[in-house]
Structures are given as C-alpha cells and as structure tokens.
Amino acid sequence: MSEEKHYYETFQVKDVIRYPKGQLILSNSTQGEQVYLQEIYNPYRDINHVQQLMAQLTYPYLYPIKQVIQSGNRLILVHPYMKLRPLTQLVTIKKPMLPDQAIKLYQNLLRTAIHLLHYEIPMVVHMEPEDIFLVHQPYLLFVKLCSSVGEAVEQFENSWRGLFPFLLTGKKDATISSLQSCLPIQIRELLYRSFEPLITPEDMLQLCEQAHFATVPRRKVHSRKGKKYWWIGITAFSMLGMGLSLHFVNDWLKPVSSTSVQQNKHADVITIPQISFHDQKISSLYMNQTLKQPTVVQFSFIQKEVSPFSAFFVTPDKERFGLHFDHQGYPYIIAGHKKKISTQDRASSTFHLKPKQEYKFQLIFQPNKPLYINVSSQDQKWLIVGPVLSEKEYQLFFLGNWMTHIQQVKVTKNNRAQLLWRQKDGGQLVHGNLVEQSKQIILMEQSQFQYPYCPTFHYRWQGQDDEKSIPLIELESLTSERFILFYHPSHSIELVQVTTQMKRLSSIPLPKKWNPKDETELVMMNQGERLRFTIQQDKKSRDLTYQLKQPMIFQYIHIRTDKYLLRILNK
Fold this sequence. Notes:
CATH topology of the largest domain: Transferase(Phosphotransferase), domain 1
Number of domains: 3
Helix content: 10-25%
Number of helices: 8
Shape: globular
Distance between the termini: 73 Å
Keywords: Membrane, Transmembrane, Transmembrane helix
C-alpha cells in the first residue's frame, strides 16, 4: 500500500487506458500538467543507477520520457500527453501502406528496438501493430526491463516478425498465401526471410537496408518515339580510387557511323559487330534509343589487361542499374543513385575477370523485375540476381578503356525473357549469386536457388567449418504453405512449418562426429501423407519423418544460404 500511496500522492489519476501489452494512466501532475504514466518492473538492485539511465533514454522512435520516479521495485515513466492514434486505425485492409513507406517505417522501428536490446540496461519494446502509436511520427511505447541481453532477445523474438506483413496488408495475422500476387517480388522475398528460423532482427534490418525495389509510378510516363537507328556516342567518366563516380561531360560526344548498327525488319533485334575504346582513360559508349520493354542484351568481350569495365542501364534522372568490375576484375552491383561503389558492395569473392580471356555476358532487362546477369567463360559461369528495375525508360551504357574490346553486341526485345534465366534442369537462382563450375555450384552468402518440385529430390553438398553451413531447405506448396528444414544450434536438424508463426514439427540429432566440410547427401521423399528426409555422411544416416494431415502437392524446393558459402556437387 505504501507504493500506491506514494503513487497517488504525486499524481491525480483521471483514467486508465488499457492496451494488449500494457496500460497508460492519464493523470494530472501537482502543477496541473496532463501526462501519461507507465509503470514497469525493475529487476536491478542499483535502483538509482537504473533510474538515471532511464531518464537519459532518448531515441527518435521511442515515446519521450519526461521524468522517471522510483517506487519500490518499480519505476514510473512520466510521458508527455499527446493525442495518440494506434497504428491499427491508420493502416487497414482497405488502406495498407505502400511498399516504400512500409519498409522505411519498419526499418526505423526495428533499428530502435535493436538498439534498446543492447542498451546498458537491456529492454524489450513491443512491436505489435496495436502497441505502436502515431502522433506526427510513429512511436514505440511499452517497454520492459530485462536482466540480460539474452533474456531481452528471447522475449523480443515473437514481437518483431508480424509488423512488416501488417504494414503491407493491414491484416494482423497475414499469411504468406495472402501476399503472393499483390507485392513486388523483392518485398515478398523480404517477408519470407523475416519468418526464417535463423534470421535475427539484425539480419533482417541489414536485408531491408540493402534492398532495392521499384515503386509503381502514379502516372503513366509516355515513351519517346524511337529513332530509326541506334547511335553510339562517347562521353567521359572519371574513376576515383576503387570507386566509380559518374560525371557526364556533355561537350565530348563523338557519334559513330550508323553503318556499324544492323537492325532486322521489325526492329526487334539490334546487332553491333564490334565496339572499341580508343582512349587510355576510362570513357563510355552509350546507345541513344531507349529501352522500356523486356529486353535481352548479349555481348562478349576480351581485355588485354584487367581494367575497370561496366555495363549498366541509366534512366533520365540518372538512376543506374547494372554491373561494374574494378581494376582487379572483381564484380560490383550498380543500383539506384549511388555515385560511388565501395569495396563493401562486392558481389562475389569467388568470381573475377582474367586478362586475355573471352567472357560472354547476358543481361535480362524487365521493368518491375530484378535485373538478371549471366557472365560465362570457358571454365565457369557467374549468375546474379540484381536490383529491381523501376518502370522507366533506360539507355544502355558500356564503360571501359583501350584494354577492352566488346564484340557481337545483340539487343533483342523478348517478352519471354524470364525463361532464358532457367537452367536445363528447370532450376533458377531467385536471390543472391552463384558460381557454376564443371563439378560444383558455389552458392554465395544469402542466396537462394529454386528447383521445380519432384516427389524424390536429392543433392550433395559440402559446407565450411561452421555447422551453420548446413543449408536451409524450404518446400513451397501450391497453396503457399511452407515447410523449412534447417540446422539448430542444439546439433540437430529440425522441420518447421511457417505461416504467421513457426510451428516445430519434428527434429533429429546429428551424429557426434558430424563434419560440415565432408560431403553430405540429402534425399527428400513425399510419400503421400508423409514427408521423409534422409541425411547421409560417411555411410552414417539419419531419417526425419513427418506425417501430414492430408496429401499435399508442392511446387518448388528452395535451397538457401545465410552467412556462408555452399558447394553443391553435381549429381
């Protein structure tokens, strides 16, 4: 009663407003100021230190704290009075957020929550939609102090995953099946990743910050009438250190004779036998006619010595999407309005150009879809899923110097360009990048390869030292139900089903002498109403089975990597 007496002596309570994860007490201070009070439990003995740290707590998306009052083993947080509107009143099924707005809001709130997890006194903020409030900006409000970072992370696990789907659909319990057709492909990929068992909030925040996706224009942009011929001009670019800085010099345009450009009768195919750079400095060649329809760009090139080279598409407002190789031959992705490419953006640590070797390039251009890039040589092939191209007009640019000779340029309008991305066995890379060699496929970090479903599926792989290099296997049904097989830190393999939450179905322990660097084989069988997974290494095997409630038809099998490389051996 002493705590309550102290509590009521300080403030005059007017109303108690209850929410799913907490309550606010609308009160008047002794000076007559209207405030909100939030009462939280303090698990720490050094009460004065905790009170001081809470009073200093200021984050852009955390509801402001005016004062912190000690009351026994509890702290009273005094908040300024504002007219709060729950997020659930503004985001509804009829009025969901646009993808670019949703991802920005999600990033800001998730970043704040992660910072609080690792604060000097770890705490959890609730990210359920009904516990987020809007004034002039969104605010996280209800906090809980934890005795350790581990406890905070564990309690936060079930709080952060549901907000992103809600922002995009207005549904509190949005399922994967309800997201299939209405969202851009990269946004759907982010949603899928958010429900993966091994993805942490920090991983998800990094994926959101790296994502490049197109927003649908609100009004139609009318394309300019194409000229009869494609022309090639020359303009100057400057290279700064390891980076690429794009600065146009308009007074150095030198058109090449149109006789070098060949068109078919319907102007669907453009060919250029050869393009040469004649300057020792980096310069560029570009095509004046614009691209807007699905198009396949193919060419080959040879370099006397390895030097910077780029092939990319440019919009009228100078957005750039494509590929750049540095002076060591390592590839980088060009995306958006970046004016400089840093070494952190390197797309592959395995693939790089070599001098005096011919490379064949294929760029698959499709508005509102990712840019697909295929670079092949005699002994290997490199594939990458690039950024999503917005629905605009583009010009094709090549950048290089006198060391680079481009040959057999072919630009083809093709409404079925997507089909060219599929492999002979029907599989295709849907995220990240890989290197294909004669006896193996090296799937890079945070990449995903998709196979068409077959009742019996098997493949062999080799990982790295880290046991997490056991790949994540995902089954996707025709009704968008998803089953994931993954490695658990308890040295076991687990099968879970993912809807709005993860449901653990079955698990098996791995052999004690399991070595992720050794060759391992996985066989998956759909036996009517039963799924069976057999994992074998060095003549030792483990079987994991699960009885389905009813027969299920699957359409895809996905293999995903996290922060590691995976070597998939040829069957």
